Every structure is written in structure tokens, then in C-alpha cells.
Amino acid sequence: MDRGVRNFSIIAHIDHGKSTLADRLIQHGGLVPDRQFRDQILDSLDIERERGITIKSQTVNLAYRSRAGGTFELNLIDTPGHVDFSYEVSRALASCEGVLLVVDASQGVQAQTLANLYLAMEHDLAVIPVINKIDLPSADIDSTRLQIERDLGLDPDDAVHVSAKAGIGIDDLLEAIVARIPPPKGAQDDPLKALVFDAHYDPFRGAVVSCRVVDGVLRPGDTLRMMSTGAAFRVEEVGAFRIQRVARPELQAGDVGYVIAGMKTVADTRIGDTITLADRPAAEPLHGFKLMKPVVFSSLYPVLSEDYEALSDALEKYRLNDASLVYQKDSSVALGQGFRCGFLGLLHLEIVQERLEREFNQSLVLTAPSVEYHFTLNDGTVVRVDNPADYPDPSRIAKAEEPYIHATIWTPDRYMGAVMKICLERRAENPTYHCPLPGRLEMHFDVPLGEVVYDFYDRLKTVTQGYGSFDYELTDFRVSDLVRLDILVNGERVDALSMIVHREKARMRGLHACERLKDEIPRHQFKIPIQGAIGGTIIARETIPPFRKDVTAKCYGGDATRKRKLLERQKEGKKRMKMVGAVEIPQSAFVAVLKTDED
């Protein structure tokens, strides 16, 4: 029976107007008075609003009265659009019956549009194509319709034409949602099954879990069980999101809402997990659950060593809201005590760093991002290494493997040469390309993930003047010639600057680090060599000259041996100072090594 519930999500390439369209739907539903309304209302974090991206999934429940007179309850599940959060997107889509696929009328179909469509098809969802920004002077609706048919394989006549900014076509869109997205299936009499697709932390109530009830009914007072961990909690409150939380007496099969059950942290809830009742459990969980695995690793250190405790507290509080961040204690001779952290990708790393600096007032130094490498030793054991400090003894390594990704790059065809160049510089393999549209180029490469985490995305945006877009998926591990590059300052290894690199790239990276350090480390009274080394072999060197007093100034005339004697004595003093003198490396030097020449 159709209870008038429709669950849908909006998916789109970055900047195609997803959050703006959500704003218009919320305004149409009258959830927020006009005087309190602000743009990107679902993006609650400052960083989301500034960068114009969605980081956390959000849900909102809208009431709608159709033209035929029926009343409907529409649950909009807003999802992140960035590749780092693709697992969260897939769980949010598993909670829906349909999606609005938004395409920008001025830019057409892009890389993420296609990737998102495939995700929606995997979940067997109804797809409503939406052509947005039809009021722009550069909008080319006919070309966009052609792309929807040719690239996406959807009927262009089904596309709804809207302008989210101007509010054009929103009524037609809501009618299409009611008519073309199927009502949820699910039996209320079956044992409870609910899919967790997000959770956030409330300082007064603990973790607030966003879930979609697939079968059964959930009421306050029930004892629920998380199927992946077996943990049991007593339900305090259930309800719907109408910008604020609104409590309800129950959540039935097909409903999307929240559950508060005295969970202390977001780590007690796992995205993709199944909730069931302790006294009447479901036979098996909903499929598709997997533990989030970090792919990029970096160490965080406080700028001042006395801030270590404050950083520890900040990470603990941050973890309440973001369970995908993993960290453990780490220490470095150069930087002191810190934490080794694992991230879902580079954007996730940037967001964690920025939120720690803003919301918790932390001043941080990050080491170069690294990925997980696999080393097979002579005795057959496989060691997983994500920190250069754990690099095994080279004489014991039988083979080394590094992770590869399959990268898809969309760019205007005039930038083909520049994009090819930066990809080949990063050891890209198996290049294939085709032109889905006149003037647009789709390129595919297999690239080592370690080459991408360094500065690839920034370089791509630079050489394509912002038009290039990039999407990737992890594929496999491949055998590679990997070495550990150490940076020595005055003969001492600086552990925070070590990195695992491909042998071909070692000299270039070593030279770059030495040049940067030469500019940043202040001159001392003695000569300071800065060297890049692989094991005992020096592959790069720069020298910081010493301050030098003119000790021969007072010798005017007389025997030349007087001058030589003074210079020899100065030389001895410098040598002695070099043996006992310590080189102070400023914090800015660690940041400078991470920056590329283009910065």
C-alpha cells in the first residue's frame, strides 16, 4: 500500500547546483521562514559553505500536496559529491528508491555525473534527469539533452528543466518525484531492519543516527542491536529531520529518520550497519556493509610541543563526529610527539586539518602524505608499510608493491597535451581516450596512488585553467622499484622528511627537498650540508654557507704566513663548532618541502 512516502537523493557533478536545488525544495516545503533562510541551508559546516562542497550527508523531510490533491511525505537525502566520500554516497543511495541526476546546462555531462549514474544503477534506482541553470546566457539545452541521451543512455524527454537559483520549474520537478519515484517496499510485520547511512554527534544526547527503516517498526523504549558489533542500546527517541529534529511516536517500514539511543560516540555506529531489535532480531543484515579503510596517511604534529595534550583532546573530540579518521601516537626526533593519521583521501586530509585549526584552534605541521605499500620479505612474509620510518631493511626485501588507481579525467580537448604531460610525469600507464562530445575529451590512465597524493589535483586544475575534473577508484597493487629517500641535515637524518618513492623519482624529489631546506634553514656559524640519500648513497646535495668574520682585516703587509695562521685557526674553530653545534630547523621548512615549485 502506498503511504505517500517518497525517498530520493540528488546526485550531480561538483558545482552543478545540487545544494541550491535542495534549498529551493526546502523553501517550497515551507520548513524555514523566508527571513531565516540562507543559501546552502543543509551545509551546516563553515568549511562546506566556503568551499561550496557538501561533506556530511544531511536529510530533510518535506510535506507536499500534489496537483491531484494527494498529500506526500518526501525524504530528501543530501549526499557528498566528492570521490573521497563515495562509500557514504553509496549507503545514502541504498536508502532511496530514486535519484534526481542534475546536469548543468552550460557544462553538460561530466566525470562525476557518469560515476554517480553508475552508482544509482547499481542500486537499481529510478533516475529523473534534471537540466539545471537553464536561465544562464551560456546554457545550451539542446546539446545537454543530446549528451543525456548519448552519454547517459537516458530519455531526454524525461528531463525536467529547472533553474534552482531562480526557482523555475520546481513544481514540475516535485510532480515528477511523486509520479516517477516508486513508493518504498517493506513489511511492517517483519523483524526490524534499518540501514545506518550517517551519524552525527550531539553534545547533550550523544550520537544521533540517521537511518532508513527497511522492514518492521522502531519505537522509543525498544532495545536495538547493531548487527556488525552486537552492541545493544535502548531507544530514547525517534523522529524525522525537518531542519530541526522533530520527535515522532514511531518509524515505520519505508521511513527515513533519526534514532537517539544513548550511544556515546559516532564510533559506536558504523555507516552501512543494520539495526535490528534485540528481542526479535532479523535473520541476516542488509548487504553492502564494509569497514571504511584509510588510503592516505600523514603525521600531525603541534607547532609547539607543549600543545600536544590539546591536540590529543582535539582529535578525540573531532573523532566523535568523524569515525572515518583513524589515528595513533607517533613521535619524531625533529618534531616531537604527534599522531599518525589515516584519511579517506586528500580532500578528507585537508578538511580534517582545516577543521582542527579552525574549530579547535590548533597550529599543525603535517608530514608528506604517504600511502600503504606492501613489501614481501625473503622469508615470504608480507609487511604493510604506511610510514617511511617502518621501511624494512632493503637487503631483506624480495619485492615491493604499490597501490594503483584507475583515473578518469575529463577536460576540454585543447588541454590534452598539458594533461598528458603531467600524467606521464607521474608514471601513468595504459592511456586511453575518446571524445564523447565535440570539444570534450575523456582520458583514462592507471596511475600509482603515491604519485597522485602529492600535488596532482592542484596541477591538473592549473594546466586546464580549472576545467579539468578527476575521478578515481583503487584497483590493485603492482610490483614497483621503491626506495626510502632520507634527508640529512649536517649528517643527521631528519625522520619527519623521509619518504618512500620510486627509484626514478628519488633524485628529483631529493633535489627539490634540499633546495627548499636551503632557502628555509637560517645560516649558522659553520657550513651546513643538506643531502638526499638512499641508504648510504648520496643522490642530492645543497650547502648552506656559514657566517664568516674577516679575521685577516688587521693584517696589513708583513709575512703571508701571518694571514694563513689566522685563517687556519678560524677553520679549526668552525670544524669544532660543526661537530658540537646543532642545526635548528624552523617549522616553516617542513611546510616548504611539501610545496611544489608552482606554489
General description of the model:
By secondary structure, the protein is α+β, with helices and mostly antiparallel strands. It is elongated. The strands form five sheets. An eight-stranded antiparallel β-sheet has the order 10-9-14-7-8-13-11-12. A six-stranded mixed β-sheet has the order 2-3-1-4-5-6, with helices on both faces. 41% of the residues are buried. The chain has 13 helices and 29 strands. A hairpin with a 1-residue loop joins strand 11 and strand 12.
Properties at a glance:
single chain; 599 residues; alpha+beta; Rossmann fold; Elongation Factor Tu (Ef-tu), domain 3; Alpha-Beta Plaits; six-stranded mixed β-sheet; 13 helices; 29 strands; elongated
Write the layout of secondary structure elements.
Layout lengths: L4 E8 L5 H12 L16 H6 L6 E8 L5 E8 L7 H9 L3 E7 L6 H12 L3 E7 L8 H10 L9 E2 L8 H11 L12 E10 L3 E10 L7 E4 L5 E3 L2 E6 L1 E5 L7 E5 L13 E4 L18 E7 L5 H14 L4 E7 L3 E8 L2 H14 L4 E3 L6 E5 L4 E4 L11 E16 L3 H10 L3 E9 L2 E9 H15 L5 E11 L2 E8 L2 E2 L5 E4 H18 L7 E7 L2 E8 L15 H21 L6 H8 L5
Parallel strand pairs: 1-3, 1-4, 4-5, 5-6
Antiparallel strand pairs: 2-3, 7-8, 7-14, 8-13, 9-10, 9-14, 11-12, 11-13, 15-17, 15-18, 16-17, 19-20, 19-21, 21-23, 21-24, 22-23, 25-26, 25-27, 25-28, 28-29
Helix pairs in contact: 11-13
